[in-house]
Design a protein that fits this description.
The protein is α/β, with parallel strands linked by helices. It has a single domain, classed as Alpha-Beta Barrel (TIM Barrel). Helix content is about 40%, strand content about 15%. The protein has 9 helices and 8 strands. The chain has an 8-stranded parallel β-sheet with strand order 1-2-3-4-5-6-7-8. β4, α4 and β5 form a beta-alpha-beta unit. α4 runs parallel beside α5 and α8 packs across α9. The longest helix has 22 residues.
Length: about 270
């Protein structure tokens, strides 16, 4: 039994009518629990509606690439939903230094707004008794990771964070884990050119990481370049089990247990 700890079932690349079939196919592949993430107020209700299915839970947040279009009180709007049993964490939030600042924004002002929203997400999570899902991405270097980790450091006593779609070094992963956080691995680990990500996934101790797809993005081999979906967690799991020298059942047990400990899943949902 696996958990897809990060997917976007309300993405425009999935027709709403096919979502039940995506969930069914995931179940047939041994993926029994899915976490779908909002990226802004625009897809909040769609994700909550999908999470009415007992196999799905939702995270609520403002993606860093969307902070320029979000109202100043967007996190207060999110706060109205933290008691909803369909909501299992706060996110996707974080820092994205890969995409250029949008029209009308300079780089510094756009990054400062991202940092402000990330701080607000941590405060909301602590108040709600939930944890935080973090996105970081750089065009070059690791500035977004370093800045996000420093913000997490200020909040780690009150809540936990997972750095999703992790492709950094084992040293960087250990710095997250030392604060009580987690990392999660997806299809990138299966790519032939992802040497560092594979080395990190091999070295991370059980209990420190989860599995994800980030569907519809970043499909693992042998589906690379195609639309990703939650059932493909199985491909990543098979690859990582072989990489780590584990039985597939061992990997399933400890990554599922880690997800249970991080997310607020509805009682009896497993």
């Amino acid at each position: 039994m696996f958990v897809d700890s990060h997917c976007h079932l309300a993405s425009h690349r999935f027709d709403a009518a096919e979502v039940p079939e995506l969930i069914r196919r995931a179940g047939e592949s041994g993926v029994s629990r899915l976490v779908t993430l909002a990226t802004g107020l625009h897809d909040l209700e769609a994700n909550l509606t999908i999470a009415t299915d007992p196999r799905v839970h939702a995270c609520i947040g403002i993606h860093p690439c969307d902070v320029h279009s979000a109202p100043d009180d967007a996190v207060s709007v999110l706060a109205r939903h933290t008691g909803d049993p369909r909501v299992c964490a706060i996110g996707e939030t974080g820092l994205d230094y890969f995409h250029p600042a949008p029209d009308g924004w300079d780089e510094d002002r756009f990054r400062e707004r991202q940092k402000s929203f990330l701080e607000q997400h941590f405060e909301l999570a602590a108040a709600a008794g939930l944890h935080v899902v973090i996105h970081t991405r750089d065009r070059e270097g690791r500035a977004s990771f370093e800045d996000a980790l420093e913000i997490y450091r200020r909040h780690h006593h009150a809540t936990r964070a997972v750095f999703h779609c992790f492709i950094g070094s084992i040293d960087e992963a250990r710095r997250v884990i030392a604060l009580g956080g987690l990392v999660s691995f997806g299809g990138v680990c299966t790519f032939r050119n992802a040497r560092e990500a594979r080395e990190t996934a091999a070295a991370c101790p059980a209990g420190s990481f989860m599995l994800e797809t980030d569907a519809p993005y970043l499909a693992p081999e042998p589906h690379r370049g195609k639309r990703n979906e939650p059932s493909f967690v199985r491909e990543t799991a098979n690859f990582l089990a072989a990489l780590r020298g584990e039985e597939i059942g061992q990997l399933a047990d400890h990554t599922t247990g880690t997800a249970r400990g991080f997310f607020r899943f509805r009682p009896g949902s497993f």
